[in-house]
Every structure is written in C-alpha cells, then in structure tokens.
Amino acid sequence: GDKDGDVIKAGSIVFTGRYKGNAAYNVVILYDQDGNIVGGLNDKNELKAYQVIFSDVDDSDEVIKDDFDGTWIYWINPKDADLNKLEKVRAELYRVDEATTNKGQRLVSDCIFEEMPAELPNITLSGKKK
Questions:
Q1: Strands 13-22 and 66-76: what pairing?
Q2: Per-residue model confidence as pLDDT tens digits over 54-93
Q3: CA 81, 82, 83: angle at the middle one, nearest 5?
Q4: In this predicted structure, what is the pLDDT of residue 127?
Q5: What is the largest CA-CA distance in the chain?
Q6: In sequence order, which residues have a C-beta less than 8 Å from that of residue 38 and are 6 or more positions away?
Q7: Would you say 30 and 90 are in contact if contact means Cβ atoms under 8 Å apart?
Q8: Which of 5, 48, 75, 97 is geometrically suited to a Cys-Cys bond with 104, CB 3.0 to 4.6 A?
C-alpha cells in the first residue's frame, strides 16, 4: 500500500485546525480560492493530501469519544507540493455514517478563507514513537 502518508516528512506543507465531534466519523477537506481541493500532484497527476484527526481515547474501553476541542492536521508531502497558485484556503469538516467508506458524508462545519502567507513559517512537530 501507499505508505507516504504514514509520516509527515520534513518540508511538507502543513495545515492545522480545531474541531468538535467524533474523530472516527469526521473528514477534513481544504479548498482554495477557486473551489478546488487543496493537494499536491504525484507523478501520475493524482491529487495527494493526507490528514489525521486526533481524539482522546478512554483507556478502559479503547473507545473514541466525542471531542469538544480536538485537533486536525492536513498535509501535502514535499515531493507532491506545488502550491504556487494557492492564495486562500478554507476548511470544511464533514461527518460520515460509515468511517471506512465515507458513506453518508455531509457538511457539519466550515470556516472563512485564510490568506496564505507570502513565506510559509517553519514548524516543528514532535511526538512519541511506539
């Protein structure tokens, strides 16, 4: 399978945001100023972008709970990223009925456009390795 999205590689273009809901049933989509989904293009000219939605898990029963201040991260790997035409970005959060197929996808929240900075700042992400 495609393992490119398993790690956020150095040099990736990273977008972050907050959400409320159940991470297992939410999907984030970013749109540009022209209504196109934000992503890079791979060598087959396919749209490539990755996301993770973080949530607390109850250790006693390992169930993902509704989160009232969760974080999502959406990124594009450096080898796929060509965002020269990207001026503005806005996020939409969708809820799905079936987490593995995205069946029943419906819009539950969105945000206003954010201007892309002339120069992207560097960020550092860290976490525990298992």
A1: antiparallel
A2: 877 666 666 677 777 788 999 988 888 777 788 999 999 8
A3: 105
A4: 66
A5: 47
A6: 15, 30, 31, 32, 49, 74, 76, 83, 86, 89
A7: yes
A8: 97
Q: Mean pLDDT, to the nearest integer, of 107-127?
A: 84
Give the Cα separation of 83 and 76 in Å (integer). Answer: 10
Higher pLDDT, 83 or 26: 26
Structure-block tokens of residue 82: 């060509």
Report the alpha-carbon distance of residue 71 to residue 53 in Å, rounded.
Answer: 6
- By the 8 A CB rule, do 90 and 24 touch? no
Q: Tokens for 47?
A: 């749209």
Instruction: Report the alpha-carbon distance of residue 83 to residue 41 in Å, rounded.
Output: 10
